[in-house]
């Protein structure tokens, strides 16, 4: 049924009117209330002079005005000797004055503390509309209009603290928080939050093309099937958390209990391929896939202060569950390179997200965190278990990974000028319960699987702080990272990985922190790192990095600048060429080099030209560039081509806020991001496969993106209780590369208007 304008107005205005009536009643009650001083005057006026007798409590006055006289018989009489009434009045007034000036001591359990309470809420409506593909323009946000509202409640008294806060924007974007505390002995914290993430829909290649095949003469066809026309993808992510802490009153012991849940629901684009160098038909698919995943974690912890040391124990158990069945697709039968049947055809499972289970035990020990010498140590052991539930593959379920971590820290401060610190970390990664892997999808069910890496990592850090003056500090640091690997070899093989068996990275840095006068803060840092055996093509052999920070805050203006420059170099990049498939044989290509650099800078300033006007400006620049040869095939020598990848972004931001009197606030924000990226390989044509070249890659991969955002907000306070807000937001995503039609599908614009009415008292 289509809503009429009257229906829409009723939907929006009805809750607002209810809130307005409630807030108006509270506001009227506050305005009509008679001050307490006026109430006392009215009471005195009504009863004449009688209240004057009760100005001082009888219990406080009688002992001074009527001193008890003890008779010889032991009886107490309240009579006053003649003429004593006048003389006794002066000591009585003096005693009352002293009692007022020096109140009697009251035990902590009997002290009275004023109760503080605040509460409020808001109701509104969130209008969302736009053009074209709105997912890139508003990546995190639900693209439908909805009611909105929030509430908060705070109650604080001597032994109890209660805080409740929440806001609802739509069914996929909300948060709530509850905190309860009783005398510090019991503390409960509950929190829930949700957001919506819009995902891309990629367009597969077209048209089909021909390529080589290895099992028979001729060529193979490579095609794409886009099986998700006009689909919109996105997932809703919800996190729930509960933490409880109990303190054993007068004993320094805490019991900590925690629960955390993470759920993801929605639809994504699943891309997978039925492709091989053996066979005539090869297809890439794109289909919608529903997502319903959940992670649950429980935590138990104990911490105690045991004289000179503190002891902490923590236990965690985490379980991941994919609550939907694994997708199934029909695959083509495949031969090996000799033409013999190797993989069977038919329906097969693919892209499983296996369930898993995780356990963790952690023990920590540390001395007092104050003093000249501070030490700490910790040890943890983790276990991850695969709970795969595939029906056509067995052997993966109950495979386990063991992770052990040990750490030790020592900090020594002999005087105010020097501080020395030494840190040590050790991590061991082991794989257990690795058996045979069987698959009914192959002619030979027993499949050989390469065992994963097992590593040992040691990290040593030494730091020296030197403070010759209160405004000047020097920090020097050495960091050594040592990694040992098992199950590796010089060349790739079916059972080993082509990685170095050990790598050592040494890093040294020096930093200076200087504050010459109040408001100015500056720092500079330089570091140099080297690695003897870079493990991967993107690893560095030498790295130099510099950082610079300068900020100044004055009375009515301020400025902040930050810069980061990094240069990486690796002249030992290893590539392998495949000689034969059966048996599998590789050889090493001549070493190549890789150079990378990045420069990031930020400049921001704010200014208050008027007491109620604040203007802010900010500019950021980000740039990265990589140069290295890229191998376009591993089955022929000479297929490398010098390539360059570069990306840069300019971010411009303007903020203005103005307080229009005591009742109205206005703010405006405008931002634009200009980003470019390109991949430019040198010209290369394959002699083995005609028509294969690098021509056109740069054009179809280049991106020239402009992202614009505008936000305006106004708030008007009718009274101390009631206020209203109106906010408008515009987001626009514009891809300007016309050579790739797929990029154009991401263009879109989103408008959002949030109107609300709030009350607090």
From TrEMBL:
This is MtrB/PioB family decaheme-associated outer membrane protein. InterPro entries: Porin_dom_sf (IPR023614). It comes from the Bacteria. Keywords: Signal. SUPFAM superfamilies: Porins (SSF56935). Residues 42-111 are annotated as: Disordered. It comes from Geomonas terrae. Residues 1-28 form the signal peptide. The lineage of its organism: Bacteria, Pseudomonadati, Thermodesulfobacteriota, Desulfuromonadia, Geobacterales. The keyword Signal applies.
